[in-house]
Design a protein that fits this description.
Layout: H1 2-7, E1 18-22, H2 36-47, E2 52-55, H3 60-66, E3 79-83, E4 88-92, E5 98-103, H4 108-127, E6 134-139, E7 142-146, H5 159-172, H6 178-193, E8 199-202, E9 206-210, H7 214-227, E10 236-240, H8 259-262, E11 266-267, E12 284-285, E13 291-294
Parallel strand pairs: 1-2, 1-10, 2-3, 10-13
Antiparallel strand pairs: 3-4, 4-5, 6-7, 7-9, 8-9, 11-12
Helix pairs in contact: 4-6
Length: 300
């Protein structure tokens, strides 16, 4: 903590009323790390009735086992977990029991389109190269196209090596487009099959196509916590480790940066509802935005 405050002294000078943060690579090194020290720090904040929100791409079970289960007491009701890349939100009752507060449910047609897109990308890559890729189908509202199946669960600390090895695997195997080519194929098939508004992201190992992303989590926080609890955006602290570009792609936390949260003097429609991005010329909102701090190396 001392190092963070040395680099970002403003973090020690502002009484933040809500803290949201990414999990892997930000709060802990990975999902195998001992999260007890993090849980202890969070408990002290929760006892002060400060809303704490974990924003993650993984499922609730992983986060619950690693950290939420370590927190007990009535103050746990101030803890929320936004999971599955914006598709779910969990909270906790007075007795500490987990409660599903929100879930985006894909329609059968949307699930069919996600399957078709991921399958088409895999077949396209394999038809023009000597490599095989795998598709992870059992994810809520999204599909994962694994570009380097032989490297299972690479830690974020090795992101630089992961970029090099994934690019080499694709190009040496005859797929000259590399990671960017796989990304563009996913966008192409999303348009071709009619999945409008598809969210396409990459952590280098995977190309993911889905219906939601971390921006949906942040909009839930904005609408359900900030506005309903009368917390100004300027009183929100958001932590991540990949806000900047990674291998030429948006970092995994980039979509946590919403224009309506991050930018002061943002033009905003007078009738804008909770969570809406500003888009119209009416009304200038000069209130300061949330504070975003990165704790990662964020390689280009």
């Amino acid at each position: 903590m001392a190092n963070c405050l040395d680099v970002f002294p403003q973090a020690s000078q502002h009484p933040f009323r809500l803290i949201a943060f990414d999990w892997d690579g930000t709060a802990v090194a990975d999902r195998r790390a001992d999260a007890a020290p993090v849980a202890a720090a969070l408990e002290e904040l929760l006892k002060l009735e400060i809303p704490i929100v974990i924003v993650t791409g993984t499922n609730f079970g992983n986060i619950n086992r690693q950290v939420c289960s370590l927190i007990t007491g009535p103050h746990k009701r101030h803890l929320h977990v936004c999971t599955n890349r914006g598709s779910e939100v969990y909270g906790f009752g007075e007795e500490g029991a987990a409660m599903l507060l929100y879930r985006k449910e894909a329609t059968p047609h949307e699930n069919e389109l996600l399957d078709r897109i991921a399958t088409a990308v895999r077949q396209d890559i394999e038809s023009r190269s000597r490599i095989s890729v795998e598709v992870v189908f059992d994810r809520l509202n999204r599909r994962k196209i694994d570009l380097i199946p032989e490297w299972h669960d690479p830690p974020k600390s090795q992101i630089g090596d992961l970029i090099k090895k994934t690019e080499a695997r694709l190009r040496d195997g005859g797929f000259g487009g590399g990671i960017h080519g796989a990304f563009e194929l996913t966008a192409y098939y999303s348009r071709r099959f009619g999945l409008t508004g598809a969210s396409i992201t990459s952590d280098v190992k995977h190309i993911e196509v889905g219906l939601t992303d971390k921006s949906d989590s942040m909009r839930w926080i904005s609408g359900e916590l900030c506005r309903k609890k009368n917390i100004a955006f300027a009183d929100m602290l958001v932590l991540g480790d990949e806000f900047g570009p990674v291998a030429g792609f948006e970092g995994s936390d980039f979509r946590m940066v919403l224009p309506e949260l991050a930018r002061p003097a943002q033009a905003r429609p007078a009738q804008a509802t909770a969570g809406e991005a500003s888009s119209g010329p009416a009304g200038e909102d000069s209130r300061p935005g949330a504070t975003y701090i990165s704790v990662g190396p964020e390689p280009n």
